[in-house]
Design brief:
Layout (H helix, E strand, L loop, with lengths): L1 H16 L1 E9 L10 E5 L5 E6 L5 E8 L1 E8 L6 E7 L4 E5 L9 E2 L7 E2 L6 E6 H7 L4 H5 L6 E5 L5 E5 L8 E5 L2 E2 L17 E8 L3 H4 L6 E7 L8 E9 L3 E12 L2 E12 L8 E15 L2 E15 L19 E16 L4 E18 L18 E21 L2 E18 L6 E18 L2 E12 L3 E15 L5 E15 L3 H4 L6 E2 L7 E14 L4 E22 L4 E24 L2 E16 L20 E10 L3 E10 L2 E2 L12 E2 L2 E13 L2 E8 L7 E3 L2 E2 L4 E11 L2
């Protein structure tokens, strides 16, 4: 027995002596720590021995690694993928420097819910990095999205106006929007990008195409996701600044962040005010937030995030139609929002190549739109409804729990499994015309996805099973293929072919399923709206991957679309039904270049042909079958030229939108049926007058164009902001 114990002791000692701890630290080209990266330890392209996520200080630790030859694979969103060979026991620590990458090689998350190079994701993905956002200084999300390929942004008015996103001919409610992986759409997809701030956002990812397999309802034509900045400096860093401009614009912001031992933190706040142009065009928006991470152990990371935002906007209403001021602006209509978002993520690594992410979240959105004085005319007896009083309210709450499990079987195979459960709870209606309707939906979904990288072929296949309390059960599949047909050389550096097929779904809004006003009968049995989507195209790389040209054809068939149908024409009583059908097809052509490490060029042209196939209760001639869908231009494009230096940076952004059908919805005696095309150019730049003091300038609508994004709502003319930002502390 003693001999056995002695042998066991010696064996344990020898095993310990043949194992070591390996610490990996990730830094960007400026030597700043990189958090949130997926780091895998592999042996000879075999299964992943360990997979972990880098903490706020950019480090990952692998304990008790046996002696031998290994590969460390790093997938950091926003950077190029990196694989480094290491030998254990030496080195015991490794510093990996990540590099910027061309658009198709950059690592993204939104396409597969896990880090993957964009070219292998099987989706059309565009990214705005922190350095670009710092130059652009967008006041709202709509100001940044308009310069991304395939995005059509329509803002009803000026600062703070209702801003909608149209992608690939889809409706404005066909986009899933997430902040730090938490959905912030209203139930049924309604999303106003106007008051959404991008303060302390490290990255914006934008994936086009049906993505309901991974993201469920509302992801019919795109997914937009923003990621909050984490603290990454050992010494606490205080950043603050202020700027001002024309139209009595004033803006101030501050943040304090850092990474101390096993924790990181970032607390931030922002306040923006502007009087706008003309009467009742004032806008105010305030934001406060926090992002706190705590490394509970080598294989456990807890992250808590919170955001609170509220805004107040004067709404002028429809009045200037393509430079024709046919009505006076509304003098008293006001819109207010109040949003609270909180989430907690627990990431667990192991066993082997597994990673588990458990998320609890709650999001509350409050919106109020009120008009008390009929100053532009309201006479129902004579069918005059230009400016009748109303007080529309929407108090929406989403709370739930997500589980996502990722398993790296090999360096070329990755499996994702997940479950989502959420409660959607809302009060919607008009307090002037009670009752205000209450609705509750409890939804569940499970999903699975397999990513395979076999030689030149990339395969992404998955499916989601959804149980929704309104439309019942639904299965949503997706398949994406990407094939490197030619590897090429230095000049022609690779030709890649792409194809994907997917189904998108969208649940009914609470107003549709539960009713919200007199004369509307609730319809709790509405089916999900659907999109049958496929796309095919190619990507051609040049100059060793520094430049890329791509062309994609897309085809969307939207079915079971929900519209209002009269049940009794004598009393004008009706309900919402699945009665509409429409079609969209087109092409997206993109060019991305990074000829220099600090200079990038992104240009895109979009063509979209849309048609209404069925709409039996069209109330406007433009909504009759055979006509194109409103607010979807056939021709549009974008341009973004960025120079990101160490001493100075600048950008040039262009958004080009052609003539498109629109409607005043019979407000005027002579109906207006289109919005004229326009081109908008924005400029931005900063200069470091001192290592800790930076001056910056931003000019929007630099050529002072007069245009309507939504017919009847004039956009803001040329406007500028100039200011200083300061940095105290930090590494």
């Amino acid at each position: 027995m003693r001999a056995f114990c002695a042998l066991l002791f010696v064996g344990s000692y020898l095993a310990a002596s043949l194992a070591a701890d390996l610490k990996v630290k990730l830094v960007d080209p400026q030597s700043a720590a990189v958090s949130g990266a997926q780091v895998s330890l592999l042996r000879n392209k075999g299964p992943a021995l360990h997979t972990a996520t880098s903490a706020g200080d950019g480090t990952v630790s692998f304990d008790d690694v046996p002696d031998g030859e290994y590969q460390v694979q790093v997938l950091a969103p926003g950077f190029a993928s990196l694989t480094v060979a290491v030998t254990v026991p030496r080195p015991a620590s490794l510093t990996a420097s990540l590099q910027l990458a061309p658009a198709t090689e950059v690592v993204v998350v939104v396409a597969t819910r896990t880090p993957v190079p964009a070219a292998e994701s099987g989706a059309s993905v565009a990214v705005l990095e922190a350095a670009q956002l710092q130059v652009m200084q967008p006041m709202d999300a709509s100001d940044a999205l308009r310069f991304l390929p395939g995005a059509i942004v329509d803002t009803a008015g000026q600062r703070g106006g209702l801003a909608s996103l149209f992608v690939r001919g889809g409706d404005s409610r066909y986009n899933k929007v997430l902040i730090d992986s938490v959905a912030v759409n209203d139930s049924g997809g309604t999303m106003d990008f106007g008051p959404v701030r991008l303060t302390d956002v490290s990255r914006v990812e934008f994936a086009r195409g049906a993505q309901s397999t991974l993201y469920g309802s509302d992801a019919m034509t795109s997914v937009v996701q923003t990621f909050s900045t984490t603290g990454n400096t050992h010494t606490p860093e205080l950043r603050f600044g202020a700027d001002g401009g024309n139209f009595d614009t004033a803006h101030g912001f501050a943040s304090i962040s850092g990474a101390l031992r096993r924790s990181d933190y970032n607390f931030f706040g922002d306040q923006f005010n502007s009087a706008g142009k003309g009467p009742n065009d004032d806008y105010s928006n305030s934001l406060q937030g926090a992002n706190i991470g705590l490394e509970l152990g080598p294989r456990a990371l807890l992250r808590v995030r919170a955001r609170h935002a509220n805004s107040h906007t004067g709404v002028q209403g429809e009045w200037d139609f393509n430079n024709q001021p046919l009505l006076p602006p509304d003098a008293d209509q006001q819109a207010r929002t109040n949003d609270v978002l909180g989430s907690a993520d627990l990431t667990l690594s192991g066993p082997s190549g597994w990673q588990h992410r458990l998320t609890g979240f709650e999001y509350h959105h409050g919106r109020s739109n009120q008009d008390s004085v009929p100053d532009r005319g309201c006479d129902p007896t004579n069918f005059v409804f230009l400016d009748c009083p109303f007080h529309a309210v929407d108090h929406f709450n989403r709370a739930g729990f997500d589980y996502q499990g990722d398993y790296s079987e090999r360096s070329w195979a990755h499996t994702t499994l997940g479950y989502e459960g959420e409660d959607e709870n809302a009060f919607v209606g008009d307090t002037n015309f009670p009752p205000v309707t209450h609705g509750l939906r409890r939804n569940h979904a499970g999903y699975a996805q397999q990513v395979l990288l076999v030689n030149r072929l990339s395969v992404v296949a998955g499916g989601r099973f959804v149980h929704n309390e309104t439309f019942g059960n639904k299965f949503v599949p997706r398949m994406a293929l990407s094939y490197l047909a030619l590897r090429g050389g230095q000049l022609f550096s690779g030709t890649r072919l792409r194809f994907s097929y997917a189904t998108g779904i969208k649940e009914a809004r609470f107003e549709e399923a539960f009713a919200s006003g007199p004369g509307i009968v609730p319809n709790p049995h509405l089916r999900a709206e659907e999109n049958r989507a496929f796309e095919a195209g190619m990507e051609q790389s040049f100059l060793s991957g520094r430049c890329t040209f791509s062309a994609i054809y897309f085809n969307n068939l939207f079915r079971h679309q929900i519209d209002f149908a009269l049940v009794d024409p004598h009393t004008f009583t009706g309900e919402y039904e699945n009665i509409d059908k429409s079609f969209a097809q087109g092409a997206e052509v993109e060019f991305h270049g990074r000829l220099l490490s600090r200079l990038s060029f992104d240009a895109a042209y979009n063509y979209a042909s849309t048609q209404i196939l069925e709409q039996p209760f069209a109330f406007d001639p433009q909504h009759e079958p055979g006509n194109p869908l409103i607010r979807r231009p056939k021709h549009s494009g974008s341009l973004l030229l960025s120079y990101l230096g160490s001493r100075w940076a600048a950008n040039l952004g262009g958004s080009f939108v052609g003539r498109r059908p629109d409607s005043d919805f019979f407000v005027l005696p002579t109906p207006v049926d289109h919005a004229a095309g326009y081109a908008r150019v924005d400029l931005g730049g900063w200069y470091a007058v001192h290592p800790r003091v930076t001056a910056y300038l931003n000019i929007e609508n630099a050529f002072d164009r007069r245009y309507n994004e939504v017919v009847g709502y004039p956009a803001l003319p040329i406007n500028f902001r100039a200011g200083l930002r300061f940095r105290i502390g930090g590494d």
